[in-house]
Amino acid sequence: MIKTYLLATIIALLLFCSCQTAIKPDALYGKWKYVKVENPNSHPPDSVKSAELEIEKPYIQFSKNDSLRIWWGGKVLSHGTFRLDGSNIRFKEILADGKTREFPFWVSKLTDKDLTFETGGEDGSKVKAVKE
């Protein structure tokens, strides 16, 4: 009985996770102003103060040529290209030495006005942004 219940629960969770809708490129295009930035994996967990966000005015911009730029303090902090992978974004960052690295942005919310995504690792961030 317990095995049947456990198997049914696992199947239900897998179906729920697989039902998440894929992101459409048109939903991303444009400028997304950061309104909250957290670093949940740092020790201790940290966040960027609201005052700093007001001063630095960070945002992420997705363009129709699949380019992505992250701005902070009026300067490009990071740039590269992106591709969509179901309900996530794969960012191929171009580093200063010309090399590249690719990592995911796990998208937990995307509406016509709100975007919430996370990056992994110890220096990972959770970002909430609004479309301008």
* CATH level 1 name: Mainly Beta
Number of helices: 3
**What oligomeric state do the depicted chains represent?**
single chain
Task: Tell me, rounded to a whole number, the average pLDDT.
Answer: 86
Structural class comes to: alpha+beta
Under the CATH scheme, which architecture would be assigned? Beta Barrel
For the record, the count of structural domains works out to 1
Strand order of the largest sheet: 1-3-4-5-6-7-8-9
Uncertain stretches: 3-9, 12-18
Strand segment count? 9
Beta-strand portion reads: over 45%
* Pattern of helices and strands: HHEEHEEEEEEE
Radius of gyration: 17 Å
**Could you tell me how far the N terminus lies from the C terminus, measured between alpha carbons in angstroms?**
53 Å
Q: What is the helix fraction of residues, given as a range? A: 10-25%
The CATH topology comes to Lipocalin
Strand count, sense and barrel status of the largest sheet are: 8 strands, antiparallel, barrel
* Backbone shape: globular
Structure notes:
The protein is built from 3 helices and 9 strands. With 132 residues, the protein is an alpha+beta fold. It has one domain (22-131): Lipocalin, CATH 2.40.128.280. It is globular and about 35 Å long. Residues 3-9 and 12-18 have low confidence and may be disordered.
